[in-house]
Write a structure and sequence with these properties.
The protein is an alpha/beta fold. Helices cover about 35% and strands about 15% of the residues.
């Protein structure tokens, strides 16, 4: 991309680099690595996806969620997570006061729309989604569905990644939703996000090195 805009790697470089990083730097997560590679490379190779790529990673500390995000961003954007097209939100840091949820909703929606308007391949990462107010999660959902445009903006080439750490211990899990799947109703906002995602066990803890 010319000028001062975000620089996104060529699709062949994304696929080659991500495959190499997942194989060589992420250990003990073979099933998850394969799912992530197919989802991300397939999405980036699609010139006209019907909906955004949505990845949802769940597991206790040490299962490699943040490291996986680092590898994905590194191989899509030349500046990795430092790219101006990568936006990271922490539920406890950015949305700490339940009484301010209406303000948070308006600000978050405007932030998503304005940044996707600037870069259609924007990435939005939400840490601790299990700690986000349910109505705030609801405000994100319209951007995850099949829309040619929403309020004049197309979100079909955007990437949304949700991370959560369950309170109970045990094997971590990764849930992923590729762009072609439809949402399935659930019992609550977080469950609705997760219900339509095929679940795969991850072996915890994960081993990795930054290389």
């Amino acid at each position: 991309m010319p000028g001062n805009g975000p620089r996104i790697r060529a699709r062949a470089a994304v696929a080659h680099g991500l495959k190499a990083d997942l194989d060589n730097k992420l250990f003990g997560q073979h099933i998850a690595s394969d799912i992530i590679f197919k989802a991300v490379s397939g999405f980036m190779n699609n010139d006209n996806p019907t909906k955004p790529l949505v990845l949802s990673l769940h597991g206790p500390t040490g299962t490699g969620k943040s490291f996986v995000i680092q590898l994905i961003a590194k191989n899509i954007y030349e500046k990795g997570k430092s790219s101006q097209s990568v936006h990271v939100f922490s539920a406890t840091h950015h949305f700490p006061h339940p009484s301010e949820t209406l303000t948070y909703k308006s600000q978050l929606q405007e932030w998503i729309k304005s940044n996707v308007s600037s870069c259609e391949r924007s990435m939005f990462i939400f840490n601790n989604i299990d700690k986000m107010p349910p109505s705030l999660i609801d405000s994100i959902k319209p951007y995850l569905n099949h829309h040619v445009q929403l309020d004049g903006v197309s979100f079909q080439k955007s990437i949304f990644i949700f991370l959560s750490s369950p309170a109970k211990t045990g094997d971590g899990t990764i849930l992923e939703n590729t762009w072609e799947k439809d949402a399935t109703p659930g019992s609550g906002p977080i469950q609705q996000l997760a219900n339509n995602l095929p679940q795969h066990n991850m072996e915890a803890p994960v081993g990795h090195h930054s290389g």
